Amino acid sequence: MARIVFDLDGTLIHSAPDIRTIANSILRDEGLHLITLDETIDFIGNGASVFVAKMRAAREIPDVEHDRILGVFQDRYETVLELTAPYPNVREALAHLTVAGHRLGLCTNKPMRATRAVLSHLSLTDPLDVIYGGDSLAQRKPDPAPLLAAFADLGDGPCLYVGDSEVDAETADRAGVPFLLFTEGYRKTPAADLPHLATFSDFAELPKLVQAQLEVLA
Ligand SMILES: O=C(O)COP(=O)(O)O
Ligand SMILES: [Mg+2]
Fold first, then answer.
1. Measuring from each residue's beta carbon to the nearest atom of ligand 1, which residues come in under 6 Å?
2. Quick one: 89 and 187 in the same domain?
């Protein structure tokens, strides 16, 4: 049986519309132009502070405002959840993998409080035995530390990391862990240019893909 760790934003859930709502509520308060969904997706991947830094840069909000804006962003991050949904077949895939005896975990750059809030809102917490957020450790992805900590907490067995982005591919590479790339998330680079073991576009494919890759890795 394997240890399988998932990324969150752009992998298990499509959260960009809610993140855009939060960003635009701040920009509206500041009297600035709102951001599009594409801009939002462009800013996601390295955690809340980098998101806010990129949003500020795009709308010329000075650096001295960073902590104030990040504070507002973090407060709203836990409460704006209505537009977020799991990608198709995520629930079924997690259930299937659990029944097959695999141990599942999460390693995201989203802050822990917002991570717990959205997982609970979508009833996705139960299948996950371990959860690392962007502020769980001093390091965050692409530093391999949180991913390695998640695998260590899950015990023994082969490891697989499942994610959607450049950050995830680099994290897996640096951790020395095989990477499965979900192609429908927030990646900007062609899949062929990122290190990965295999790609998939529908979570309905994942249980069979995991089985096949574990046989290759054995
Ligand atoms: O919060 C982010 O910027 C990205 O989150 P993720 O690591 O779940 O993709
Ligand atoms: Mg992601």
1. 7-10, 44-47, 51, 108-110, 134, 165
2. yes
Indicate the top mutation candidate among 107, 109, 113 to test ligand 1's pocket, ranked by most ligand atoms within 8 A of CB: 109
Say how far residue 217 (Cα) sits from the centre of its chain: 25
| Ligand 1 atom 9: residue of nearest CA | 9
Is the per-residue pLDDT at 188 higher than 90? Answer: yes
Residue 151 has pLDDT above 90, yes or no: yes
Distance (Å, whole) CA 171 – CA 179: 9
Q: Is the domain of 73 the same as that of 132?
A: no
Question: 170: CA distance to ligand 1 center in Å?
Answer: 14
Residue whose CA is closest, atom 4 of ligand 1?
45
Q: Is the pLDDT of residue 135 over 90?
A: yes
Annotated catalytic, 7? yes
CA pair distance 105, 103, nearest whole angstrom:
7
Question: Contact 52/69 with Cβ under 8 angstroms?
Answer: yes
Among 77, 101, 128, give the residue marking a domain's end: 77
DSSP 194: S
Q: Which ligand is nearest to the CA of 185?
A: 2
Residue corresponding to tokens 């989203």: 110
pLDDT at residue 218, as a whole number:
79
Is the pLDDT confidence value at 83 over 90?
Answer: yes
Residues 57 and 98 in one domain: no
Range of the domain at 54: 16-77
Q: What's the total number of domains in the chain?
A: 2
Four-point Cα dihedral 189, 9, 41, 19, nearest 10: -170
